[in-house]
Design goal:
The complex is a heterodimer. Chain A is an alpha+beta fold. Chain A is built from seven helices and five strands. In chain A, helix 4 crosses helix 7 and helix 5 runs parallel beside helix 7. The two termini of chain B are 44 Å apart.
Chain lengths: 201, 745
């Protein structure tokens, strides 16, 4: 097959695309009128979800296929929770569900009926940082900052669950969370500091 | 803050740190535009061939699908036209693989279609309903096999000084072959682009890039737009390590889709796509020989290298460079060839080619030290040179011997066994190893806007990006230091191509280049303030600018501290709300060009090898940097530690795996491609010489991003040899390579 080439330069690109674009302003029913073998019988179920996020009860109607991560990031603008792999392998998406840490990328939102979710945004009180957030900042426990939300959510759980007794136990617990910038040493320093301070988190 | 020149800085935390720990910092994919559509790639399952038929009929009929773009319906992109004469003047041909352009498949995982839908879920659901029928062609993904056939190699680049292969004539010499597999950057943030055509010829992009200006110009050239009509925003970049140094095919794909459906389009790569679509460290083979006289003087070094590239682009890096100049040696020859394979194009990955080359060089020196029965650090000191033997210019500064002294002391070098395999602790074989890293220190051009407001706030702007090293912080420190004012009153804005032009963040050049521009902008502002004081403030009548200084937000006479005026008062006197200047800083001056500039590092490793299964545990690391003045001690330390962690991955775990029968990548996930984790990282001590390199630039600072990793893998293999007597020249070191049959997961 020949490559799709039109050698009429930029204007051609712009004109051509404008007319095609117009098609997509038309109602979806027209778009569907494309010749097809058969319509894929894929039901897109909408479902109702009652969920409390950072203390706020929400009654939502959502796409049944949505993960809790995509619900937070795409639909509700809680973008502090990060998408790193969508396979539960990197920990960037860690949130707390009813007080326990959970990888939000491999959890359907619908599995969280009536659950209480805490995200990174829910840790701080207004401008006041949570002690773990403050310890991360003080110990420079991040570089690019992308894995940081997940690290902090795991770190809080680590201390709460009593796994912050030694550096080794912290490291083992935190192996769920990858940091490609390599801030591990400072992350463990931050967790140790919070654990030793005895402050209730 | 551990301040420089007694600057009044109260905190040493990252200036943008709070919003990174509270989740407010917005990365590319987190921007939301009205009516935004979601795009996902469908990728090839073959390594090479053509698509006979792409059936999108089922997929396009699915709910919420807005379009499926592929070669048969993709609008013509001006920069895709290979015929120069037919392209408008301001259009350049897109470099590399033209996404959605033709029916050819060039590598496994290549995008063959782009699904655009009203939601991520709808786009994702349609992927498996796009059916491709392929005509498979013969392909080659096997580097180890293909490199043996000379006809497969591109013509080498050769270098020679003195006599070729002189090392072989020496009383003491070693020669070895070194292999490094493909390693993948895998920054935590997935590559993403949000493209939005604000008008017919006005494009706005939120893009994960290390160079907003470079992306702006690439996309302008591709779509035939003037630069100023393309805006690229990359405020927060979630890691890059080199992979963000060019625009990959997903960037034009998002632009094409946004244009075609006339809506903003967000395209986020998946983690598996991060393994095939955004570059990698090329696989390499090296052969390095080094020979010395009985006293340990290097007489000859011979360094051959082959690294892979794609079929459609040449990617070359500095693999053989350090061998030419890091040590005194009269006879040096190098040869570097490329091997095209049916893979996507590689790109610089942290430490780039120098990390590859220094692995071989620093391993060979260690090996030679045992032959000579000399301490490897003493051997390096013996061959120290303060003049670069390749270009004969003196190094602007070199303090690597100070690094050796610190590292030896701190790691406990005196405990290193001289006979390999002879030291045991708690049943484990213990080894010590060290290595050196080197990288060029450049200074390029950059412009900085500086705005001083009458409320005392200072704003600086430059279109550079910050992928994690803390550029915003170090630039603020440079400004605070130059202006002698509190850092809290300073704001450094970056990550937007609309700001004054700055370099891409890469090659360890940001601090030197942008830092010099910030420093110059501050000094220009100070001069302006002094002139204003002379003109407007009666107290300064008759005083020359040279006899004045600007500090503590005042203009002050150097001779009489009572002759002073607040900057804000001065602005009021001038009836000005602000002073707003844009300053361009040039590359190196003639005086600076009389030197050659590099950053240096040395790394020290103490590790344990389990004699039962060959598993390796790194116990302790000391890493040292000789990179001029350290602007931001806290973030610089973090950057060095990060280099060590990257180096541990290179040494012990990272390898992209293929099924060469199908040309498919088989470990494209964090579950199968192992990057270092918390429990694999040892206690790391960081030390800097921290002495301004006054011959290099005005601020005396050089980069550290690359040297943090360069050489590190050799410190590990050298320590493994010291522990076991087994020399591993193929990375990563696995128990099998130490002669153990069972592999510990």
């Amino acid at each position: 097959m020949k490559p799709c080439t039109s050698h009429d330069g930029r204007r051609g690109f712009l004109k051509k695309t404008a007319s095609i674009a117009a098609l997509y302003f038309t109602p979806t029913s027209l778009v569907k009128a494309f010749a097809v073998d058969r319509v894929i019988p894929l039901p897109i179920a909408k479902a109702k979800l009652a969920i409390t996020i950072n203390g706020k009860l929400m009654n939502l109607e959502i796409d049944a296929r949505t993960t809790i991560l995509n619900l937070l990031r795409e639909d509700l603008t809680y973008t502090g929770t990060k998408k790193g792999c969508e396979m539960g392998q990197c920990g960037a998406c860690m949130i707390h569900v009813n007080g326990k840490r959970v990888k939000s990328c491999i959890q359907l939102a619908l599995n969280n009926q009536n659950n209480k979710i805490t995200t990174i945004e829910g840790l701080s009180e207004g401008e006041k940082l949570h002690p773990m957030q403050a310890a991360f900042l003080k110990n420079d426990a991040f570089q690019c900052g992308y894995c940081t939300s997940g690290q902090i959510m795991s770190a809080v759980a680590c201390v709460r669950e009593g796994n912050a007794k030694t550096r080794k136990s912290i490291q083992t617990y935190m192996d769920t969370n990858i940091c490609r910038c390599g801030a591990y040493q400072n992350i463990v320093d931050a967790i140790e500091e919070v654990a030793k301070s005895g402050v209730k988190i | 803050m551990k301040s420089i020149n007694n600057t009044i800085l109260l905190e040493d935390e990252r200036v943008d740190g709070a919003e990174k720990v509270n989740g407010k910092a917005k990365y590319t994919a987190e921007h939301k535009l009205p009516n935004m559509a979601y795009a996902v790639f469908v990728t090839s399952t073959i390594a090479k061939g053509s698509i006979k038929n792409l059936d999108i009929t089922k997929a396009i009929a699915m709910p919420g699908i807005l379009d499926i773009i592929y070669y048969a319906n993709c609008p013509a992109v001006p920069g895709y036209n290979p015929i120069a004469a037919e392209r408008p003047k301001n259009v350049s041909e897109w470099r590399g693989f033209k996404v959605l352009y033709d029916n050819k498949v060039r590598f496994f995982g290549q995008p063959i279609a782009l699904i655009v839908a009203d939601s991520f879920e709808n786009a994702n659901a349609a992927i498996r309903f796009v059916k491709a029928e392929y005509e498979v062609e013969k392909f080659e993904t096997n580097f180890d096999k293909a490199r043996l056939e000379p006809a497969n190699l591109k013509a080498p680049i050769n270098y020679k000084r003195g006599t070729e292969k002189k090392f072989k004539e020496q009383a003491f010499f070693v020669e070895g072959e070194y292999n490094i597999p493909i390693e993948v950057h895998n920054a935590m943030e997935l590559f993403a682009t949000i493209a939005y055509w604000e008008g017919e010829d006005k494009l706005t992009l939120y893009d994960k890039t290390q160079g907003p200006k470079s992306t702006q110009s690439t996309m302008a050239r591709t779509f035939g737009l003037v630069d100023k009509n393309v805006r690229v925003i990359a405020e927060n970049v979630g890691g890059g390590f080199g992979s963000g140094l060019r625009s990959w095919p997903h960037v034009p794909a998002a632009c094409i889709a946004a244009k075609k459906i006339n809506r903003p389009v967000k395209l986020v790569l998946t983690r598996p796509q991060m393994f095939s679509l955004v570059g990698y460290r090329p696989q390499s083979w090296q052969k390095l020989g080094i020979g010395a006289d009985a006293a340990g003087n290097f007489i000859g070094i011979s360094h051959e290298a082959i690294s892979n590239t794609s079929r459609y682009e040449d990617f070359r890096e500095g693999i053989v460079e350090a061998s030419k100049f890091l040590y005194a040696c009269e006879n040096v020859d190098t040869k570097y060839s490329l091997l095209p394979l049916d893979l996507s194009t590689p790109i610089w990955m942290r430490g780039p080619g120098e990390a590859t080359g220094c692995f071989a060089l620093e391993s060979a020196i260690d090996e030679l030290s045992y032959k000579l029965k000399m301490d490897p650090i003493q051997l390096r000191i013996k061959n120290f040179t303060a003049v670069n033997p390749e270009n004969k210019l003196p190094f602007s500064d070199i303090n690597i011997k100070d690094c050796y002294a610190y590292g030896m002391e701190k790691i406990g070098w005196k405990n290193r066994p001289t006979i390999p395999g002879s030291l045991k602790e708690n049943g484990m074989l213990i080894g010590y190893g060290m290595s050196v890293g080197v990288f060029g220190a450049g200074k390029g051009t950059a412009s900085v806007r500086i705005v001083l407001s009458n409320d005392g706030k200072l704003l600086l702007e430059c279109a550079v990006s910050d992928m994690g090293p803390g550029t915003m912080t170090s630039m603020s420190i440079i400004a605070a230091d130059a202006m002698q004012m509190p850092i809290q009153k300073i704001k450094f804005k970056l990550g937007d191509s609309d700001l004054p032009p700055g370099p891409s963040q890469g090659g360890s050049g940001t601090t030197s280049t942008v830092g010099s521009a910030v420093d110059l902008a501050c000094r220009t502002l100070q001069q302006k303030l002094k002139e204003m004081a002379i003109q407007l403030a009666p107290a300064f009548a008759g005083i020359t600018a040279d006899a004045m200084e600007v500090k503590n937000e005042m203009v002050i006479s150097k001779t009489d501290a009572n002759t002073k005026i607040d900057i804000s008062a001065l602005l009021k006197l001038a009836n000005q709300e602000k002073i707003d200047l844009t300053i361009a800083s040039n590359g190196k001056t003639a005086a600076q060009l009389k030197f050659t500039s590099n950053s240096f590092s040395s790394h020290y490793v103490k590790l344990a090898v389990n004699p039962k299964d060959g598993s390796i545990k790194i116990l302790e690391v000391v890493t040292t940097g000789d990179a001029g003045k350290i602007i931001s001690p806290k973030t610089a330390r973090s950057q060095m530690i990060g280099g060590v962690v990257g180096g541990i991955g290179m040494a012990l775990t990272e390898k992209l795996e293929f099924d060469h029968a199908s040309g498919q990548i088989t470990n494209a996930s964090f579950g199968a491609y192992h990057v270092p984790l918390h429990s694999q990282t040892p206690k790391t001590d960081v030390w800097f010489v921290n002495k301004p390199d006054v011959n290099m630039n005005e601020i005396g600072a050089k980069g550290i991003g690359e040297i943090a990793l360069i050489g590190f893998a050799a410190a590990v293999t050298n320590a493994v040899y010291n522990a076991t007597g087994k020399r591993v020249r193929d990375l990563p070191i696995t128990p099998e390579k130490l002669g153990y049959k069972t592999v510990k997961a």
